[in-house]
Specification:
Elements: E1 2-5, H1 14-23, E2 28-31, E3 51-53, H2 62-80
Parallel strand pairs: 1-2, 2-3
Length: 105
């Protein structure tokens, strides 16, 4: 069996995977995500011949890039209109005196 993970690193018990790869229970693995990113250079998965690790690249597609550009443009437009952008990662700035964005209702 081969294990492929392009979703989330935490879905896989990496220690158990290393054991299964050494014992041959799993023939090989292709991983686009790891529990720790960037990975520790000492991570044994990076040094196994039967493992391929890519740099979290499953996201990169024509559709994903187009969606990213559309969302970025929408968030910029919202900010320029004084609105709070969708999915704001630092909402604490809304409480600053010089904030010109309208607080969500």
């Amino acid at each position: 069996a081969y294990l492929i993970n392009t979703a989330r690193g935490a879905l896989i018990d990496e220690d158990a995977l290393v054991t299964a790869l050494h014992e041959g229970t799993i023939t090989g693995a292709a991983l686009d995500v790891l529990t720790q990113e960037p990975p520790d250079p000492a991570n044994p998965l990076l040094h196994l011949d039967n493992v391929i690790v890519t740099p979290h690249a499953a996201f990169y597609s024509t559709a994903a890039i187009a969606e990213l550009a559309e969302k970025a443009a929408r968030h910029i437009a919202q900010s320029l209109q004084g609105q709070v952008p969708d999915n704001m990662v630092n909402p604490q700035v809304l409480t600053q005196a010089n904030c010109r964005l309208q607080h969500p209702r």
